[in-house]
Design a protein that fits this description.
This protein has three domains: 90 residues, Winged helix-like DNA-binding domain superfamily/Winged helix DNA-binding domain (Arc Repressor Mutant, subunit A), CATH 1.10.10.10; 105 residues, Periplasmic binding protein-like II (D-Maltodextrin-Binding Protein, domain 2), CATH 3.40.190.10; 92 residues, Periplasmic binding protein-like II (D-Maltodextrin-Binding Protein, domain 2). 45% of the residues lie in helices and 20% in strands. The chain starts with a helix and ends in a 12-residue tail after the last helix. Helix 2 crosses helix 4. The chain is rod-shaped, with a radius of gyration of 32 Å. With 309 residues, it is of the alpha/beta class. A five-stranded mixed β-sheet has the order 4-3-5-12-6, with helices on both faces. A five-stranded mixed β-sheet has the order 9-8-10-7-11, with helices on both faces.
Length: 309
């Protein structure tokens, strides 16, 4: 193996010369002088103790031994060319794979529209999606099962790099059944007298709402706990209680008066979404371009959100 590597340049000169059937044409193609090409061929012949070329009036032709060697060298250089092509394809995103983790709701409302745009531009790139709660996504990232994750922030984990990129807003919504809640501002304490519909325990949204009530010395005991944002929205629409949702997820329902936003006395802090990758671990070119395109594109521009570069 060491012998081959040390003489790779000589084999390249041999390969080009055999292909061009001329020392002068080979020299021109490799930006060398003809004497340099002749010297390289002589070196290889001496190392192999074999004559590889015979001079003719039109240039050179391979000897029998040269033809046998060329058969193998040609394959080797074809594989090298193929390897270079594959590397360039990956660099230019003509092929490759990106594995992304996110919750069902983030996937539906933010990722899928962007994935369509991205795959339209890079059709050969395969996108794999894995869903779960924010803790699930972080765990998948640490196990190397995904390249990146889209999660709710904050994340406190020294093994993860976080890029903040978008703001989202939370609100309480009701159906027409609870229209009396819409007449005046409502306090968090008053909301506790109504059935609450929230996400299930351990989800980032559930932790967020619990922290919100705790800040005002209140504790929640939801009537309904769900793991799906779509189901939460539907339960709110049919009047099963007061739903706690991401406002950007119910834009259409609010516009069509299928749901109504409760005018809350207390302020609900803005939430952030972030892109997470594993710290000190290089990511693929495809993943880098995907992240860059997400930050550049403006995923929820229609919702008047602001990017954090």
């Amino acid at each position: 193996m060491i012998y081959i590597i040390e003489n790779l340049d000589l084999y390249r000169v041999f390969y080009i010369t055999a292909t061009e059937k001329s020392f002068s044409l080979a020299a021109k193609k490799m930006f060398l002088t003809q004497p340099s090409v002749s010297h390289s061929i002589k070196q290889l012949e001496e190392k192999l103790d074999t004559l590889l070329f015979v001079r003719t009036s039109k240039g050179v032709r391979l000897t029998k031994e040269g033809e046998m060697l060329f058969h193998f060298v040609e394959q080797a250089f074809h594989f090298i060319e193929k390897g270079e092509k594959k590397v360039n394809e990956l660099k230019n995103l003509m092929s490759g794979e990106i594995s992304i983790g996110s919750s069902d709701s983030l996937c539906k409302h933010y990722l899928l529209p962007h994935i369509k745009t991205f795959t339209d531009k890079y059709p050969q790139v395969q996108i794999q999606l894995k869903h779960g709660t924010t803790p699930n996504i972080i765990e998948l990232l640490k196990k190397g099962k995904i390249d990146l994750g889209i999660v709710h922030l904050p994340i406190e984990d020294n093994q993860v790099d976080v890029t903040e990129f978008i703001n989202i807003h939370s609100c309480f919504v009701v159906s027409s059944k609870y229209k009396k809640l819409l007449k005046n501002e409502v306090s968090l304490k008053e909301l506790l007298t109504y059935p609450l519909i929230t996400f299930s325990k351990n989800s980032s949204s559930r932790k967020f709402i619990e922290a919100l009530f705790k800040k005002h010395d209140l504790t929640i005991e939801p009537e309904i706990e769900l793991g799906s944002v779509d189901l939460l929205i539907e339960c709110s629409k049919i009047g099963l209680g007061v739903g706690f949702v991401t406002k950007e997820f119910v834009t259409e329902e609010l516009e069509q008066n299928l749901l109504y936003e409760v005018n809350l006395q207390e302020d609900i802090p803005v939430r952030k979404l972030g892109i997470v990758t594993l710290k000190n671990t290089p990511i693929s070119v495809g993943s880098k371009k995907f992240i860059k395109s997400m930050k550049k594109k403006g995923l929820i521009k229609k919702h008047h959100e602001m990017y954090i570069q």
